[in-house]
Amino acid sequence: MSLESDVGRVTRDVMGAVADSVCFNLTSLLKNDMKLSDEQVLRANAIVRSTIESSGFNGVNQYVSLFNTVQKESEAPKRGKLFG
Questions:
Q1: Is-above-0.85 flag for pTM?
Q2: pLDDT averaged over the chain?
Q3: Residue 56: exposure state from Cβ atoms within 10 A (0-12, 13-18, ≥19)
Q4: C-alpha dihedral over 43, 45, 46, 49, to 10 degrees?
């Protein structure tokens, strides 16, 4: 397994759990306090879920990219060494 797939799987699970929790609380607020229809609540939840998940994946992709860059640099042959 690659780092990208491992981190992607964990990110999907964690951000999915966060989105579920937020959407559960948001649904209660929108239905009970604001008296929105089911369709309006579903639209709001879809926007919130998409935002949470994309934010998580974007952040993780930046860290994985940085890690891969650092790893490539550390594995590259060192220049300027005496006799080697």
A1: no
A2: 86
A3: middle
A4: 160
